[in-house]
Amino acid sequence: MSNLLIVVAGPTAVGKTDFSVELARRYNTSIISSDSRQIYKELTIGTAVPAKDILQEIPHYFIHSHSITQYYNASMYELAVLDLLKQLFRHTPVVILCGGSGLYTDAVCFGIDDLPEIDPEIRTNLMTKFKQEGIDSLRLQLKTLDPVYYKTVDLQNPKRILKALEVSLMSGKPYSSLLTHKPKKRPFNILFIGLNLPRHELFSRINQRVDEMIANGLVDEARSLYPTFISSHPQALNTVGYKELFSYFAGEITLNQAIVSIKSNTRKYARKQITYFNKNKQMKWFHPLAIDSAVRYIESAGINNH
Description:
Layout: E1 4-9, H1 16-27, E2 31-33, H2 52-57, E3 60-61, H3 74-88, E4 94-98, H4 102-109, H5 120-133, H6 135-145, H7 147-150, H8 158-171, E5 189-195, H9 199-215, H10 218-232, H11 243-249, H12 255-278, E6 284-286, H13 291-300
Parallel strand pairs: 1-4, 1-5, 2-3, 2-4, 5-6
Helix pairs in contact: 3-4, 5-6, 5-8, 6-8, 9-12, 11-12
């Protein structure tokens, strides 16, 4: 039997965790998180990390595995997960990859272009420039070094701007010229399962989950991270659920306004996730409660739970 990676993707709050846990029970396997924020051990409530009893029952990887003070990106994640899969597939023919971060999911399934290793001094200099001069300075430098990528990159995302600048400075070539977007062949089969709900139901779940996060102590969790945000502005804290509360702590908005903003920004993020995953024509979509239908689909691909 060929080894199989089952990818469970979809928008935030749709029910990916419960769905993946049930799949892991049926196939007696483990779950690799492809959530780019759940990897950070300081972020728990605001990233909806699985409950402790679930983490004890089902082996999970890349949950609270790093600190927000550590530099981490999708390329590093790709290499680490591929190495982990080699180990896991020695013991089981099926592994689950679950998360809503499209970039991290695609890094594992399709690969990221081979780029030069970055000199730590270049990275340090850019981070210092970012802290001292702000994102506008980085945008201007990117526009000069790689005007093509400048036109397509999310200019509100410093992590992606920094990545492009690092590679451009290290290679002496525009970052965009090194991007081939050619999928890499993986030594295992991949099955894509997407979860979705009617829009009104998904948005209702998002609003409810934000209320639950606030009730469970998100404000205090964010307040404990606020000094780190002020002193070093780690990219990991530029995250919905935290950045709005930082504005509240700074006296820019009220707590109620912050909560309303968290809900609104989370709904926007969910729409972006749906659009992103819809581009994958291999994705087979299911209702999050349709676990039996999904299992039949998996078995039709030649995999069973025996």
